[in-house]
Amino acid sequence: MSAILPPSERIWWNHPLDRVEGTWVALALIWCLFMFVMMPYWHVYGKQNLSNEAYKIAPEAYAAKAQAVVDKYTVRTETDRQYPVVHPPAGSDVYLIARLWEWWPILELEKDKTYRLHLSSMDWLHGFSLQPENINIQVHPGYDMVVNITPTDAGAFGIVCNEYCGIGHSTMSGKLYVVE
Ligand code: CUA
Hints:
Shape: elongated
Order of helices and strands: HEHEEEEEEEEEEE
Bound molecules: dinuclear copper ion
Helix content: 10-25%
Strand content: 35-45%
């Protein structure tokens, strides 16, 4: 049987398994099993696949929590859209809102301090991708996604959206500062 031409006999699925075909099925299966084992391995021993927690929360309730932190710990504003730069105390809960099409507010964290970073969406699915680090977390509406983070490098980091969310998806970027 050729892989390019259509099968000469129409009831092709009754043919015995070809050796090459069987080899490829076996290779694919072995690869699947390998990845199946490696996913938990990378979670425990790698630097990716963060442990996150998810809690149900209404978007309005989440927004109120984020607003309370912004009201209390804003240290300055940036850009002509007056984004608040929020410097919450080390070790505290910090909130980031994803919505069409922005990340709000700008967080300013301290190096080597651990925070509980909360992420939620006000509308539909977005993706939190921290640049140039390799951190990706899906951000759902109605869920408070929490990750414990400890920044190990100071500097300005970019946040981009990595789930397609409409016409403004490519402009949905934010910022996160880590200071000494
Ligand atoms: Cu938000 Cu793409």
